[in-house]
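If it is no trouble, might I ask you for a protein's amino acid sequence along with its backbone structure tokens?
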Amino acid sequence: MFTGEYGHTIDSKGRLIIPSRFREELGDKFYLTRGMDGCLFIFPQEAWAAFEQKLAALPLTSKEARTFTRFFVSGASECELDKQGRILVPSSLREYADLVKDVILAGNLNRIEVWSKQRWIDSTKYTDMDDIAKGLQDLGITF
């Protein structure tokens, strides 16, 4: 499982260092794609395969299912680390996530989220956690 928060920079060529703590768990090949809330998701190969199976099982007759699948799959890129532990983030994904210089890589259980530093700051103010926790009770999450 991926946990922790790491600050890095993305260079002008779109190369991003993956924290050493994440590298072993990612394996040799992994997938980078659009994520929710304006970030990018990095999935290890096994987690991506499981996610793909769930997407493939969605009904083609559902416009929402087609849109949801397209969102993740059309932007997906298979990645490998270079000798310096970096990946190349395609320009379309850099634009989507507004990755210019300062980047946050945050572990989120089965995936890594890649955020522009400013979006991360804006999205992690966590002022309404009590309300969110109450809403999660409907999903069976209790503390």
